[in-house]
Amino acid sequence: MKNADGLRRVPRHPRLILGLLLLSQVAVAMVWWRHGWQWGLALMVATHLAVVWATLYPRASWLVPALSRLPTAAREVWLTIDDGPSADTLAMLDLLDRHQARATFFVVGERALAQPRLIEAILQRGHDIGNHSRHHRDKLFWCLGPRALEREIGGNQQLLQQLSGRAPVWFRSVVGMTNPFVGLPLARHGLTRVAWSARGFDGVDCQPQQVIERITGAIAPGAIVLLHEGARHGHNPQILQGVLQYLQREGYRTCLPKA
Predict the structure, then answer these.
(1) Partner of 79 for a Cys bridge, out of 57, 103, 127, 135, CB 3.0 to 4.6 A?
(2) Which keywords does UniProt give here (predicted)?
(3) CA-based R_g, the chain, Å
């Protein structure tokens, strides 16, 4: 597996992207003025729909770059676990140890601050941590502005560095939603946005076997697997166990991109 430098997708020109989006609306105004409201309205709707799609579709990368799978033909996958630390963390660490597997835990700052020993346990047992925002504002993250996003992303980056002694290099958007302003704090803090190629919707109420089948059906060399911990349904360790058993049975190994 190549090191993190070869996988990094840190936004290079986030202000340029924002400027181009602004220019697109200037173009809409010119079309409206020159050709009438019908053409102007149609163009305005089209440009806004494009931005909404790129914000809401987790693997969209034309506004903010994203890593959605690993560039390898080897039978290896990257396990990523969101929303911790939680009451499930230790049980999931035990499962990973049992299967000699490694994962990146995308952690929420306020939860890490409340349970710093779990962050220590994650790192001591050979895993990695990533930035998953300070407060996990799942209903509002998609529409936050630059200052609020800096507090959520940059604030969590500083907190996790204080707790762990290392600055994360990976970021995952809350609920996968990424508006054009997210690129600003990612560029400022040297973060790469990580999406996924295999998911089972285990963060909401679910049937564990159905979730396992959805995830394993999308497993392929280089897959980035999205899992969760701490969901109210309580099935996350069971789902992780099922995924790990499948990987072992099919001859896959887990990997951590080297930071």
Answers:
(1) 103
(2) Membrane, Transmembrane, Transmembrane helix
(3) 20
Pairing verdict, β 192-193 and 170-171: parallel
d(CA 132, CA 112): 11
Q: Which of 132, 136, 228, 235 is catalytic?
A: 228
Q: Quote the number of domains for the chain.
A: 1
Burial of 249 (0-12, 13-18, 19+ CB in 10 A): exposed
Tokens describing residue 53: 């799609």
3-state secondary structure of 192: strand
Looking at every residue in the chain, the average pLDDT score rounds to 95
Q: Active site residue: 13, 82, 94, 205, which one? A: 82
> What CATH number has the domain bearing residue 177?
3.20.20.370
Query: Residue 17 is part of which domain span?
Result: 1-259
User: Which phi and psi (to 5°) does residue 176 adopt?
Assistant: 75, 5
Q: Is 48 marked active-site?
A: no
What's the whole-model pTM score? 0.94
Q: Give the residue among 235, 167, 198, 230 at the shortest CA–CA distance from 79.
A: 198
Nearest residue to 61 via CA among 192, 188, 168, 218: 192
Taking only the tens place, the pLDDT of each residue in 18-28 is 999 999 999 99
222 three-class SS? coil
Active site residue 233: no
Cα 116 to Cα 21, 85, 159: the distances in Å are: 40, 9, 11
Taking alpha carbons only, the member of 207, 208, 257 closest to residue 79 is: 257
